[in-house]
Amino acid sequence: MLDPSLVSLTYLDEGAANIVYRISASPSASPTRSSHHESYSRTTPPPSEIDTPPIRPSSSNPFPGQLLRLRKDNATAAVLDSHHHFNNRIAPLLPTANLIQQTLVRASSHLIQKCNAGLRSMEKRGARSPQRAGVYLAEGEAFAVLVTDMSSSNSSSDRDAPVEAETESLSVEFKPKWLAQSPNAPSNGTSRRCRTCALRALRESRGPMPGDEKLLSSSSGFCPLKLMEQDRGIVREVGNRIVELNRIRKEDRGWMEETLFAWLYGNALLARLRTLQVVMDPEGVLMGNLESPDFLTAMTMRDCTLFLRIPRDGGPIEARLGDLDLKAASPKKADYWRRVERQLIDDGWYTAIGRGAAVESEERCQLSQ
Ligand SMILES: O=P(O)(O)O[C@@H]1[C@@H](OP(=O)(O)O)[C@H](OP(=O)(O)O)[C@H](O)[C@H](OP(=O)(O)O)[C@H]1OP(=O)(O)O
Ligand SMILES: Nc1ncnc2c1ncn2[C@@H]1O[C@H](COP(=O)(O)OP(=O)(O)OP(=O)(O)O)[C@@H](O)[C@H]1O
Asked: Looking at the record, which segments are called Disordered (predicted)?
């Protein structure tokens, strides 16, 4: 049970649907913590089904190696549903060692309100991305999850070291997105872009969204099909691009690029992810049953994030997939998927003709090589 009277939360990062916080002992338990951390003081009783990690008040993080992930009020699936979906449908499909682990905890409304006050204050200070502003945590949500912390660390037992300290490992993350072409795209001979590159080109044609620095670090920066290539030069190129997108400092780029290339080339985890995407959705969003559990699982697999923690000493890379959230079978979402696919086909974003020819993306799709 997460006891808010014992913890302080520090904003780490956010995506479209969730916000992730670092956890530390509250100022009363740890007088050295700085005052800008939000702290919480209400205890909620533990629900019986919740796996309860032991609290260690003497540690600076009562849940060592874990972060707290809270749901925003725009997310389509409740935390409990998403967590059960993860346990029952997703986790059995992938090696445990390659998954961001989740532990369900109860989140009091007081804790969430405090976090929302913190978000509003960040907005006032200009410390929150304008793209994310105006959307807050769901105050009616009763649960949150503790997740494996994959951020750069000093050591697995001390993840609270100051950020300016030289880390023992560096982390990179990227969304592998659609590792195979959309089943509904024009046949291979005529497609010049894969689904991810076609959608990126469409979005580029509209111009960048204000304050969207995140666009650089998610799916927009490279062609996912290149990750599946046999050609070493192509895999090296995409690995280097991932290092660049993660804004790794210059002095670390050389060894990171080498290590990342060695990990990416012929990688079994990415191959498995691709297989799941293909097998779970052989018909595509225009032909398939958009409410079927298999189809929704394929969409989850097309929108997850791969986190890699890369040790400086050449030790083994820790690789975990996260953001494997339930995609709800809602008419709104189904409509979005169909609309995007129709537009990519009808306006020539796959074939790079008509409107789709207007954008010459800097990042070339593997299908156009
Ligand atoms: O439609 P896509 O492929 O752009 O994916 C969306 C993501 O955009 P991306 O291209 O990865 O930057 C999008 O990510 P961002 O908003 O860009 O962080 C979401 O992950 C969205 O899923 P949901 O609506 O939160 O369930 C994602 O929507 P789904 O299509 O996976 O439902
Ligand atoms: N387990 C983790 N370890 C380290 N950093 C993490 C972890 N989980 C999330 N983050 C950071 O927080 C960011 C947002 O988290 P997350 O991907 O869970 O949000 P989301 O809203 O589900 O994303 P999306 O926009 O794809 O729906 C990530 O891009 C990453 O930088």
From this structure: 26-64
